[in-house]
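Example record

The entry below shows one chain as it appears in the dataset: sequence first, then structure tokens.
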Amino acid sequence: MHRETRGWLFVGPFLAVFALTFLAPIGYAIYLSLFRDQAFFGGTVFVGLDNYVDAIQDSKLWESFLRVLLFLVVQVPVMLLLALLAALAIDSARLHGANFFRVVIFLPYAVPGVVAVLMWGFIYGNNFGLAADLNDLLGTTAIQPLSGKWMLPSIANIVTWEFVGYNMLIFYSALRTVPAELYEAAAIDGAGAFRTIRAVKLPALRGAIVIATIFSIIGSFQLFNEPNILRTLAPNVITTYYTPNMYAYNLSFAGQQFNYAATVAIVMGVITAAIAYVVQLRGSREAL
């Protein structure tokens, strides 16, 4: 048996699963996006790129996109900065109980997403939970996490709480791969703690930061669980098109517009891939 044949036998099962669970759904979504259900003209008909033209002109889609983009621009840097500070603190030899803090910070990521949102939803509630108790204690109604003004920051707080530990672990793992010789050389040169962080640790973390940023960008554009669950507590604040994923979901399962929902999904997938690619390209160039 040739070496090339043995290689294909090894990767064959993965390629089959990859094609079935990744390539086939994408292909089917593209196929659906080229058709439209014409109820009064004989069912589903081929419309080519008409659905994409409609998506470009869809104000609801772009409103949800801009909302998620704002979420990304503000929440992702804050989350990654907190994760970076936590990783640097745990990696330093000055933090007592480092293993304990590492577990505690990572623990929220182990909580199922739906459970986490429900927990924070009860904390945010205007008529119950911590927010309501604080309002009663202070004799005010100023604390309204589920109001239109504070809904997006409230969701950002939940996501940050969930994923700081995940990103901290990525950064901490990268720090553990830094050769001890670099620290010894920095100490010989008289570098203090902050100089060592700037000259040794941060350059070593550049690749991990790029990876964490790309994952966070993808996760931001996939925002769904948090607003969809909180919508039951604030139906007048969170619309059916609050995020692009919610918009596609409600178009498909509530509006039975499967073809247009597929179009929205494809458009957002292309935008997400383009932004993630730019971030990766920029990070790779800076690494060089």
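Notes for this example: The two ends are 42 Å apart (CA to CA). The mean pLDDT is 89.
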